[in-house]
């Protein structure tokens, strides 16, 4: 049975999407590559086996874990719990070589918590760069109010991860990370910015919130422990999702060969978001 779909840009393969998850619990893109075929994602690395390339991963949906691994429990720390959910593929609204529209069900304890409408598209920017446009809409279809949390909202300072997340390859040297006005993990992590760039050995990624609401979410950034960037839905306080409500986010990621500087990153982001 087919469990993956290929993503292409300008006639070149740039990603593989696994949409029928196994024990990992969620669909994800891996490998994602530059136009010159340099991999820029990592799948199930030894340091975090639940990191799956590019995905939407949330550690706490009203107590259910859609991130993987252990759950952070207040006054107890990371704890192995039987609380894991699955993002189940329901079907395609569209599935073309350069993008797709997918319906998903976020399920736990035998029931549906959230219904997701996901849109992913690839667009060429230049001979050495392309853009991944990734949007998701999470709707609470049930009668009860829900909320999205993170280890930070459960008592672990600085760990506000959950939402769109990109696990980059771990290399001998930590990648550089910067925004339009700051440099380094400490200066960029936990802050809102129009865009954040991560540059490794022969590759660059530039992440941009493509809506006002997305741009208000702080960035979760790691470089020294492992290379990863995420847009945080619940960085400091829980995000309510009342019955019938929908949470929408859109992130555009520039995937480029070479090592971009600040001016180059800003120029490609402007082109990607307007495209």
Report on this model:
With 275 residues, the protein is mainly β. The chain is 8% helix and 47% strand. The chain is built from three helices and 20 strands. The protein is globular.
Head-to-tail CA distance between termini:
35 Å
Task: Report the major sheet.
Answer: 8 strands, antiparallel
Helix count, DSSP H or I runs of 4 or more residues = 3
What series of H and E elements makes up the topology?
Answer: EEEEEEEEEEEEEEHEEHEEEEH
Strand content: over 45%
Looking at how many chains there are and whether they match, the oligomeric state comes to: single chain
Helix-strand blueprint:
Layout: E1 4-9, E2 12-18, E3 28-32, E4 54-61, E5 64-66, E6 71-73, E7 77-79, E8 86-96, E9 99-108, E10 111-124, E11 129-139, E12 146-149, E13 163-167, E14 176-179, H1 185-188, E15 195-199, E16 203-209, H2 212-216, E17 219-222, E18 228-231, E19 239-241, E20 246-257, H3 262-274
Antiparallel strand pairs: 1-2, 2-3, 4-5, 4-12, 4-13, 6-7, 8-9, 9-10, 10-11, 11-20, 12-19, 13-18, 14-15, 15-16, 16-20, 17-18
């Amino acid at each position: 049975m087919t469990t993956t779909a290929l993503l292409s840009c300008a006639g070149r393969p740039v990603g593989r999407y696994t949409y029928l998850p196994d024990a990992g619990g969620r669909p994800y893109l891996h490998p994602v590559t530059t136009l010159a075929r340099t991999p820029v994602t990592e799948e199930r690395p030894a340091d975090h086996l639940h990191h799956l390339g590019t995905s939407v991963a949330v550690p706490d949906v009203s107590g259910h874990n859609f991130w993987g691994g252990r759950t952070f429990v207040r006054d107890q720390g990371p704890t192995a719990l039987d609380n894991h959910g699955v993002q189940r593929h329901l079907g395609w609204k569209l599935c073309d070589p350069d993008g797709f529209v997918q319906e998903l069900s976020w399920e736990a304890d035998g029931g549906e918590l959230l219904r997701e409408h996901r849109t992913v598209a690839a667009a060429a920017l230049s001979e050495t760069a392309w853009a991944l446009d990734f949007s998701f809409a999470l709707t609470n279809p049930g009668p009860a109010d829900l909320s999205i949390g993170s280890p930070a909202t459960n008592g672990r300072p600085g760990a506000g991860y959950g939402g769109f997340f990109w696990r980059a390859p771990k290399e001998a040297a930590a990648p550089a990370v910067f925004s339009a006005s700051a440099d380094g993990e400490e200066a960029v992590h936990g802050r809102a910015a129009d865009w954040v760039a991560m540059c490794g050995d022969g590759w660059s990624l530039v992440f941009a919130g493509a809506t006002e609401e997305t741009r208000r979410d702080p960035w979760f950034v790691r470089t020294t422990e492992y290379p990863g960037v995420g847009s945080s839905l619940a960085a400091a306080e829980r995000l309510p999702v009342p019955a019938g409500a929908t949470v929408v986010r859109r992130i555009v990621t520039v995937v480029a060969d070479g090592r971009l500087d600040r001016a180059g990153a800003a120029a490609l982001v402007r082109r990607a978001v307007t495209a």
